[in-house]
């Protein structure tokens, strides 16, 4: 698979603050890549280096075979960026905003109009095209923001916490649109998010950054197939916290070290599916009513928490 982004030993400082320490990571073409990490981990800085907005202090960066600093003009023609703050003109309509941004790319007027019309249709906001941005809902603005980010038909789309503020239904729609773009336009995406559900749903490759270093980077398919243990989640009617310590001890005696208790559910890693019966017996012994048993093939929550334990610090 071709590499669309190659980052090698990149460092970026802001004064004494090391935003990126010594990062090396590659992103493949035609995939959605998730970029995760706590607040201040360095995600936006990395996105901005990829987009040619910041220049790294050390290391090498290649995006679409280009050097983002030296080939900035060429690069900007081929990437799209959407961040939480979308920077659109409040007093212009959806349509006029898109025309304005499209003209910046020197897209021929007839072609630009046809692209805008097609995307407005695809995103189901044609009927609102004359609405001023200041009067639009967050969902409408986000859709306009994505159209703006892809109006130049980019090969790479950088989404920095772009779905923030969307209600669950609009978020679902947003995810559908991103998937569709990847499928029909073969766009590669780097998606920065704090929403692990969103990343699990969309991304084929995941990179976790901690204090300016990559602490985790792997494809979801290899994560799922290389797993030595199996994640399960069991829902109960009763409150599990009252039995937490006893259950935890019994499971530990049965070689189940990782357990996460929620009020009405327990998540754990079991060595094999045969161990499910033993776990259920333990719970039933506490007169707990089990209402659901879920097999979690890919548990990003656990991967994220594990990668932020102190012993994994680089
Ligand atoms: N322009 C800047 N000037 C000074 N410091 C900056 C600048 N941009 C980022 N930093 C610092 O670099 C570090 C990494 O910030 P960055 O915004 O990349 O993190 P992030 O992972 O995107 O965080 P969040 O999830 O909160 O958006 C932080 O300590 C931040 O304060």
TrEMBL record:
<feature type="domain" description="ABC transporter">
    <location>
        <begin position="5"/>
        <end position="236"/>
    </location>
</feature>
<dbReference type="InterPro" id="IPR003593">
    <property type="entry name" value="AAA+_ATPase"/>
</dbReference>
<dbReference type="Pfam" id="PF00005">
    <property type="entry name" value="ABC_tran"/>
</dbReference>
<protein>
    <submittedName>
        <fullName>ABC transporter ATP-binding protein</fullName>
    </submittedName>
</protein>
<dbReference type="GO" id="GO:0005524">
    <property type="term" value="F:ATP binding"/>
</dbReference>
<dbReference type="GO" id="GO:0016887">
    <property type="term" value="F:ATP hydrolysis activity"/>
</dbReference>
<keyword id="KW-0547">Nucleotide-binding</keyword>
<dbReference type="InterPro" id="IPR027417">
    <property type="entry name" value="P-loop_NTPase"/>
</dbReference>
<keyword id="KW-0813">Transport</keyword>
<dbReference type="InterPro" id="IPR003439">
    <property type="entry name" value="ABC_transporter-like_ATP-bd"/>
</dbReference>
<keyword id="KW-0067">ATP-binding</keyword>
<comment type="similarity">
    <text>Belongs to the ABC transporter superfamily.</text>
</comment>
<dbReference type="InterPro" id="IPR050763">
    <property type="entry name" value="ABC_transporter_ATP-binding"/>
</dbReference>
């Amino acid at each position: 698979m071709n590499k669309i982004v190659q980052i090698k030993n990149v460092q970026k400082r802001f004064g004494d603050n090391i935003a990126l320490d010594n990062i090396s990571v590659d992103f493949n073409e035609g995939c959605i890549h998730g970029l995760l990490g706590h607040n201040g981990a360095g995600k936006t800085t990395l996105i901005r280096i990829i987009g040619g907005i910041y220049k790294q202090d050390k290391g090498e960066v290649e995006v679409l075979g280009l050097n983002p600093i030296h080939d900035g003009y060429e690069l900007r023609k081929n990437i799209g960026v959407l961040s939480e703050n979308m920077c659109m003109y409040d007093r212009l309509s959806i349509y006029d905003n898109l025309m304005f941004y499209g003209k910046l790319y020197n897209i021929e007027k007839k072609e630009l109009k046809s692209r805008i019309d097609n995307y407005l249709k695809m995103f189901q906001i044609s009927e609102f095209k004359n609405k001023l941005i200041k009067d639009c809902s967050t969902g409408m603005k986000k859709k306009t923001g994505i159209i703006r980010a892809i109006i130049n038909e980019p090969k790479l789309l950088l989404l920095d916490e772009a779905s923030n503020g969307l209600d669950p239904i609009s978020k679902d729609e947003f995810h559908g649109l991103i998937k569709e773009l990847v499928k029909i336009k073969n766009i590669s995406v780097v998606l920065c998010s704090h929403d692990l559900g969103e990343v699990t749903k969309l991304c084929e490759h995941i990179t976790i950054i901690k204090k300016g270093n990559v602490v985790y980077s792997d494809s979801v398919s290899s994560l799922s197939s290389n797993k030595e243990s199996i994640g399960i989640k069991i829902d109960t009617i009763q409150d599990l916290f009252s039995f937490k310590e006893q259950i935890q001890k019994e499971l530990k005696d049965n070689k189940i070290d990782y357990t996460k208790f929620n009020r009405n559910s327990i998540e754990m890693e079991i060595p094999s599916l045969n161990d499910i019966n033993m776990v259920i017996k333990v719970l039933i012994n506490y007169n707990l009513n089990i209402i659901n048993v879920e097999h979690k093939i890919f548990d990003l929550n656990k991967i994220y928490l594990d990668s932020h334990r102190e012993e994994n610090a680089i």
